[in-house]
């Protein structure tokens, strides 16, 4: 199996191959006009990538979709996979990329390369409620053959709550960026808000990026980044990705794209356990989530 093991980097659970690029990632030199999209895995990264890319190209679909999403917006914290030339490392892609760059990361706040903060880079952070995030991550770990074996849903949920999954604890991730949002140029968004009113949230991104776009352009971006449109678009649905890594027959990358799917997975007891864990982990933050809209 190609599935990776896990290791700890600065105390955070990470995929084992990340340990080998960590020193290079940490020394990464950001430019002041880099835009970082930061998320916990499965919080809406790909969705946000497409929105940002369309905004950057003034709504021009041909420009923004010229290549698959993972090649347009490098993933800072993913190493090269040796025998797959069509899957270069994020660091490799970034070396060749013209500014202004949009970069994707799942790193928790404390592992973000310091140059992003030194350069006062803009960061768009997207958070998704923990219950839906766990369900989405479970299915992703089934279909992504590089991720550790998820086991049963019940086994997986236990690991998720312990932070024993790649990129560590969901609680720490969402909380730390929330607590830091006013010390840096961080736009903190919620998946649930984006589902509720995508236009409103897209306008927040447009303003954050200091762009001025016509109403029709905004309407077009809303349409192009709907779940169904992105699901049918090979430049954003990850079907161009090597099938040896993503097996969409097990579970498609564009799976459901909804709020509240957790209700189809959590038993009453699992829900109780999650809620009490949540209370413990989140008692010192003003951060709040909606688990339905
Ligand atoms: P589900 O597994 O719940 O369907 P990421 O891009 O961070 O890996 O997140 C993937 C999750 O976002 C998946 O959730 C995927 O379906 C959902 N998603 C992707 N594009 C979306 C869109 N345009 N609208 C809503 N959800 C989207």
Helix and strand string, N-terminal first?
EEHEHHHHEHEHHHEHHHHH
Strand-residue proportion: 5-15%
Largest sheet: 4 strands, parallel
**N- and C-termini, Cα separation:** 39 Å
- Ligand identities: adenosine-3'-5'-diphosphate
Percent helix? 40-55%
Q: How many helices does DSSP assign?
A: 14
Annotation, overall tally of beta strands: 6
Placed side by side, the strands forming the largest sheet appear as 4-3-5-6
Shape: globular
Protein name: Sulfotransferase
Keywords: Cytoplasm, Transferase
EC number: 2.8.2.-
Domain Sulfotransferase: 33-285
What are the defining features of this structure?
two-stranded antiparallel sheet; 10% strand; alpha/beta; 4-stranded parallel beta sheet; 293 residues; binds adenosine-3'-5'-diphosphate
Report on the architecture of this protein:
Its main location: cytoplasm. One of its GO terms (cellular component) is cytoplasm. It is an enzyme of class 2 (transferase). Belongs to the sulfotransferase 1 family. With 293 residues, this protein is α/β, with parallel strands linked by helices. It is 41% helix and 10% strand. The protein has 14 helices and 6 strands. The model has no long low-confidence stretch (mean pLDDT 96). Helix 2 packs antiparallel against helix 12 and helix 11 crosses helix 12. The strands form 2 sheets. Strands 4-3-5-6 form a 4-stranded parallel β-sheet, with helices on both faces. Strands 1-2 form a two-stranded antiparallel ribbon. It is globular, with a radius of gyration of 18 Å. The structure holds adenosine-3'-5'-diphosphate. Adenosine-3'-5'-diphosphate binds next to helix 2, helix 7 and helix 13.
